Amino acid sequence: MPLLPIESLDHEGRGVAHLEGKAIFVDGALPGEICITSSYRKKPNFEQAQLTQLIKASPFRVAPRCPSFGICGGCSHQHLDEAAQVAVKQRVLEDCFQHIGQVTPESMLSPIHGPTWGYRTRARLSVRNVPKKGGMLVGFHEKKSSYVADMTRCEVLPARISALLPLLRSLVGGLSIRDRLPQIELAAGEDVDVLVLRILEPLSPEDEQALRLFADRHRIQFWLQPKGPDTAYPFYPLEGAELCYRLPEFDLLMPFRPTEFTQVNHGINRMLIRRAMRLLDPRPGERVADLFCGLGNFSLPIARLGAHVFGMEGSAGLVARAEENARRNGLEQRAAFRVADLFKMTPESYAELGHFDKLLIDPPRDGAIELVKSLPDQGQGDGAPWRIVYVSCNPATLARDAAVLVHQKAYRLVSAGVANMFPHTAHVESIALFERAA
Fold first, then answer.
1. Residues 380-398, buried b or exposed e (16+ Cβ, 10 A)?
2. CATH class name, domain 91-114+264-436
C-alpha cells in the first residue's frame, strides 16, 4: 500500500485520504499524518482501512490514557489532543452545513466544553462469562465487535464507578444466574448511583444477599430489570437518596428513573441549557414550544424564566415524568405537556397547536424533518415562530433540517456551535439559532 497523507476526519472520527480518486477511511489516523494502511473493506468508490504504520505523526497526537483504547469501542479519540477534538467537531458541523444543507451560519458560537475524564454518568455495560479470559467480563463492547472488552477500569466513567468494574466481575461471577445476566446499566445521580441488572431469571436468596452486601459496602442502589426498560424496579436499598440531577442556575431539581433518557454529561448539560436559554430568551407572556421535550430538561428552565411552555414528546413515560417534575418544582401553572409522535407532524396538526412565539427543538439522531416541513411558509400569516433554537445530536440531520428552514421557511441561520457532550468520541452535539427573516 502506498503512503497515504491524511487530509481530515470524517463524522465517525476516521482519517480521510484519497488515492486515485477513491476515498480511503482510515481507523486511528489523524489529519496531517502520513501512514501505511491495510484495507479491510473495498468498494468501487471508497475503502475502509486500518492504520498499520505511522510514518509522520500529527503534532496533536497524544498518548491515550486508557490501556483498553483501540480495543474497547467506547472511545475513538483518546489519541487526539483534547482541544483538537473540539476543533474537529466544530469543523464537522461546518462541513455538514456546507455540503448537506448548503447553508452558512452568520456566526459560529464558541464551543462548549469542560472536564474530559470521569464525565460519563450514563452507561450500558455488557456482561459475559468468558472462561478463556478468566471468567466474568463487565464492560463496553470491543471495537466493531460483539465481544466484551477485558477492562478493569474506564477513564470516562466517574472514578468511583470505574473502581467498581473488577468488583462487579467478582460479584456477578458468584451469582447463580451469572450466565443469565447480560447487562448492567449505570445511572449516576448527584446523590446516589444506581446499577440496573438485566436479569433473565430470578435471583436466588443467596444472590439477593450478595447484592445487599455489595450495595451497603459501595454505597450504590441496585435495580432489577426482568424484561423491557419499563419493568425495572428498585431492589435495594429501598430507602435513601433520590436519583436526580440539579440545575442550580434555575433552582431546579430533576428526578428521573435510571432507565429514562438523560444527558450523559451533567456539567455540559448545564452549560448547554444556559446557552439555549440565552439564545431563546424566553420572556413572561410568551408561549414557547419545547418539542422532543423528554423529562423537561429545557422546558422547566423556560418556565422558570417566566414563559408559558408547551412540551411534546413521543414517550408517555417521559411526559409523565416531565409533568411530575413541573409539579415538583412549582411550575405546573406555566408548563403543560402532551404525548405526540413528532415524526408524523403535518402542517394541519401543527396549526392545531396554536401560535408559538418561539420553539426549542431537541430531537434524537433522526432529526425533525417532518416538524420543520410543517411550519408555515413565508406569507402564511403570523403562525410561524420568529425564533427557533435547535439542539442536535447529529450534525447531518441538523444540516438537512436547516436547509428546509432557510431555503423553504425563510429563516436565517444566525449562529451555531458545538458542545463537547461526549469527549474522546466522534459524537457531535450542537446548537443552532434560527430567526424568521423580515
1. eeeebbebbbbbbbbbbbb
2. alpha beta
Cα gap 111→87, rounded to integer Å: 8
Classify residue 179 by its DSSP letter.
Answer: G
Any catalytic annotation for residue 96? no
Residue 369 CB-density burial (10 A; 0-12 exposed, 13-18 middle, 19+ buried): middle
Q: Which CATH architecture has domain 122-188+192-236?
A: Beta Barrel (2.40)
Domain boundaries, the chain: 4-61, 91-114+264-436, 122-188+192-236
Encode pLDDT of 222-245 as tens digits.
Answer: 999 999 999 999 999 999 899 999
Given the residues 35, 75, 96, 393, the one annotated as active site = 393
Q: Which CATH architecture has domain 4-61?
A: Beta Barrel (2.40)
d(CA 318, CA 295): 5
The beta strands (E) that lie in 295-383 are given as: 308-313, 335-339, 358-361
Identify which of 378, 306, 365 has the alpha carbon closest to the alpha carbon of residue 335: 306
- pTM, two decimals, is 0.94
Q: What is the pLDDT of residues 58-88, one digit of tens each?
A: 999 999 999 999 899 999 999 999 999 999 9
Cα–Cα distances in angstroms (integers) from residue 69 to residues 10, 25, 87, 141, in the given order? 19, 19, 21, 12
